[in-house]
Amino acid sequence: MKLSMDIIAHWIRQYEPVATIVSNELTIAGIRLFSYDKTPDRDYLYIGRTSDFVERAQVQEILLVHRKDVISLKTQELEDVFDTVMDAFVFYQKWEQDMLSAFQQENPEQVLIDASREIFGPMFFTTNGLQVTAFSRQYPKNSINRNWDDFWNMGALSVDSLAHMQNGKYMENLPYKWNCEVFYEENVERYPYSMMLSQENGEHQLTGQLTIISERPFEKYQKHLALILKQALCLVAGHEKEGQQGSVIQNLFQSLLQEGQQNKAGIERFYQMQGWDRKRWCVIAILKKNNNSAGSYGYHMRALSIHFPEILFCMNPGEQGEGIVCLLTLEDDRGKVSGNRYGRIYPKEFFDMVRRLSFRWFLSYPCQGLENISIQYQQAKAALKEEKEDYYFCALQDLVGFGKDETLRRLALHPALDRIRAYDRKKSTDYYHMLKVYLQCERERVLTSRKLFVHKNTLVYRLKKMVSLFALQLDEIYEREYLMASFLCLEQEEKAE
Questions:
Q1: Spatial separation of the C-alpha atoms in residues 146 and 172, rounded to whole Å
Q2: All residues at 6 or more sequence positions from 434 whose CB lies less than 8 Å from its CB, including other chains
Q3: Distance between CA atoms of residues 369 and 330, nearest Å
Q4: 172 phi and psi angles, rounded to 5 deg
Q5: Second label for 327, Cα 20 to 30 Å away, from 162, 218, 293, 384?
């Protein structure tokens, strides 16, 4: 789970933090001690002393820095602060895991409420018929307000309670896609502030409302965490609807596309629900119509799901529904790689159908398992942005780009190199070194054979075999530049180790 700086600031409130926070999103994937030896990662929170960030600093404090946000603590206990922030990640990771697995329980809405008792105040869930089916049990009658007492007496909201809520003072609407409203009931005593989260199923139909009530205005950290609660509510709605197991998987799929490596619990849950082999090779494909007829994407996605039940589909979460994201599983072609730079068999029937439906596809590189699914999604989006069918034609810019994520850069390496090294280990060949020297010598065969201490004819024979085995296009400038950049990155990686 990603956290926000407001969540962190609340968690370390015992240190009396002084914060300058401009971000309003969940963007922190982890924490690190600050070091000038590393390129800062935009998704991490960096912790250090003032002198670590600013040379000759006059004041010695602990700073927590994430992008443009800074939290200052008047303490010198760096290890204690680091451990405390780490506790936050552990706590919220478990909380999110409990939330997103609630649909497996008998009364999932009650599970969501019980799991959130340390974060929010009193909560109750109502169906579309205003029946209260789950609520915070630790708040008895006469402890909150008249609305609370009404459903204790009736098991439902009364007309008066509903009128109070509807006549409340509208205060705020959280990011529109989440449909979360914050309001103030002027004529309700003691707990006048409320936040209402709409529960929607896979077809975006309203199936219920979760209401959180509070004695005081909601803090930012609570609003940020409410978005996770909303996501879990919708996951429950998709699961409860008969025949909508696909909706649960699709919601989880969309979540993994955006969170990836950080959502380890989600990956485990995905494996369990789908019964997938963890060693299975997967690729992300984005399908898009040439004429941009977004209105028909839903229909096409359902039709493709029927024809290809083994493939997972969802609407493109990053493009407001414009496009379909597919998770394809691949098979090993047992070394027969002529014309296939990845050494994997793609589902031909699927791409024939996609072509008949006038879709274009934009492919990521294949990866084993789901641990890098969000990076693969970034690769497919890069191909979409550049209007290239294959990420191969965009990978070089990620490989040499300044400030790129290390995992993204590692997965942007030329796909042939890992396969060449694996082949060398298995067959006791030396194609990897031969290719490297050949490119360094700018394809001058006499010079290459001299450096490798082999006869020119032997070199020619081995080059021809290597090109055939690994589908290399060494006459193309882009291919050669891509390979050389990959060699350099691998060398730097090996030196760093």
A1: 23
A2: 448, 452, 459, 462, 463, 466
A3: 11
A4: -160, 150
A5: 293
Q: Is 354 helix (H, G, I), strand (E, B) or coil?
A: helix
- Give CA angle at 407 (403, 411), nearest 5°: 110
Helix or strand or coil: residue 289?
A: strand
Cα 294 to the chain's mean position, in Å? 24
Distances (CA, A) of 448 to 426, 478, 488: 24, 21, 19
Token couple for 301? 């996605």
Strands 359-363 and 367-368: unpaired
Q: What is the CA radius of gyration of the chain?
A: 27
Say how many C-beta atoms besides its own lie within 10 A of residue 402's C-beta. 5
C-alpha count within 13 angstroms, C-beta hemisphere, residue 404: 20
User: What tens digit of pLDDT does each residue of 352-398 get?
Assistant: 888 887 889 999 999 888 889 999 999 999 999 999 999 999 999 88
Q: How many CB atoms lie within 10 A of CB 187?
A: 10
How far, in Å, CA of 63 to CA of 146, rounded? 45
Report the alpha-carbon distance of residue 329 to residue 178 in Å, rounded.
Answer: 31
Dihedral of CA atoms 79, 82, 88, 93 in degrees, nearest 10, equals -110
Does this model's pTM top 0.70?
A: no
